[in-house]
Design brief:
Order of helices and strands: EEEEHEEHEHHHEHEHEEHEHEEHEH
CATH superfamily of the largest domain: P-loop containing nucleotide triphosphate hydrolases
CATH class of the largest domain: Alpha Beta
Helix content: 25-40%
Structural class: alpha/beta
CATH architecture of the largest domain: 3-Layer(aba) Sandwich
Oligomer: single chain
Strand order of the largest sheet: 7-8-9-4-10-11
Shape: elongated
CATH topology of the largest domain: Rossmann fold
Largest sheet: 6 strands, mixed
Number of strands: 15
Number of domains: 2
Bound molecules: adenosine-5'-triphosphate, magnesium ion
Length: 292
């Protein structure tokens, strides 16, 4: 049974498209990254899942229950951090957390203190006196403190510094190990590569790809730089499977290719190689492709 399942989930704000025909299925224990450029429909999807707005068409289930009909029951087991969380500035962090905790059945745990310690947050300060990043930490803590089965975050790491981001990833991976499911939107490609099992990419309201990280890596583009003793024309390599383009650069050939490297290596082995190297690439190029 999937933890989240949507069926042709669609939202129009009047004539403006929010999201269209989303069919998502998120498994238990999965960390699912939801990526897309500004205005793509990420927040809209999250709000639909949380029953904060209503779909124009289609439906969504969480824990196999309809998000509209069983909204209250479902929320007992969801932790959420919205992208634009507002907080009571006059409260101290600890009072705010204690207050929110009272909405939960399984309340009163020391986990919030443990989290504050891990994220290096002083809970005794008034919220309005906190920096943006520290308020974000408080938002993360309130989402996690009840140890919910499903955690939904809208761009959780915005305004967290790199050190705290690392700590945040560690907490998320720890929760995943214990069987919690995490759905979060992001613009940060490296974090998605680091912590997600699968990634869904949304563009102009529609899903353009849902892939596992290994699948995405297979699509990764590589650059091989080689110097051959013999004079070989670039066309020799251009016709090989997977080769995207071949350019000459300071007598070297720079070969851009995708996927399996074997055909290319076998072809190269027919010549005398004087120099060979790879240029390191990341997933960015793939994501940018989908974004476009
Ligand atoms: N309340 C609203 N009324 C009208 N249009 C809206 C409303 N909320 C969102 N939209 C529109 O729906 C589309 C999707 O917006 P959404 O906020 O879901 O994008 P997003 O992927 O979360 O973007 P970002 O990365 O900037 O947070 C945009 O065109 C946006 O202008
Ligand atoms: Mg958004």
């Amino acid at each position: 049974m999937p933890i989240i399942q949507t069926k042709n989930l669609t939202k129009y704000y009047g004539k403006t498209l929010g999201c269209k025909n989303l069919n998502l299925s998120i498994k238990k224990g999965e960390v699912f990254g939801f990526l897309g450029p500004n205005g793509a429909g990420k927040t809209t999807t999250i709000r639909l899942l949380l029953d904060l707005i209503r779909p124009t068409k289609g439906s969504a289930k969480i824990f196999n229950k309809d998000v509209r009909k069983d909204s209250i029951k479902i929320k007992e087991n969801i932790g959420n951090l919205p992208g634009d969380a507002s907080m009571y500035g006059k409260m101290r962090g600890i009072d705010f957390l204690n207050y929110l905790e009272r909405f939960h059945k399984n309340n009163r745990s020391n986990y919030k203190l443990e989290l504050a310690d891990k994220l290096d947050l002083d809970l005794k300060r008034k919220i309005k006196n906190h920096s943006k990043g520290n308020r974000q930490k408080l938002g993360v803590i309130q989402a996690l403190m009840s140890k919910p089965k499903l955690i939904i975050f809208d761009e959780p790491t915005t305004s967290l510094d790199p050190l705290i981001q690392q700590k945040f990833y560690k907490i998320i991976l720890g929760l995943k190990k214990k069987g919690h499911t995490i759905f979060f939107s992001s613009h940060i490609l490296s974090e998605v590569e680091k912590i997600c099992d699968r990634v869904g990419i949304i563009r102009e309201g529609e899903i353009v790809a849902i892939k596992s990280i290994p699948e995405l890596r297979k699509e990764k583009i590589h650059y091989l730089r080689v110097l051959l003793k013999e004079k070989v024309s670039p066309e020799e390599f251009e016709k090989l499977k997977g080769v995207i383009k071949v350019e000459e650069e300071n007598k070297h050939l720079v070969i851009t290719y995708k996927g399996n490297i074997n055909a290319l290596i076998k072809k190269l082995a027919k010549y005398t190689i004087s120099d060979l190297g790879f240029k390191e690439t990341n997933l960015e190029s793939i994501f940018l492709d989908y974004y476009k």
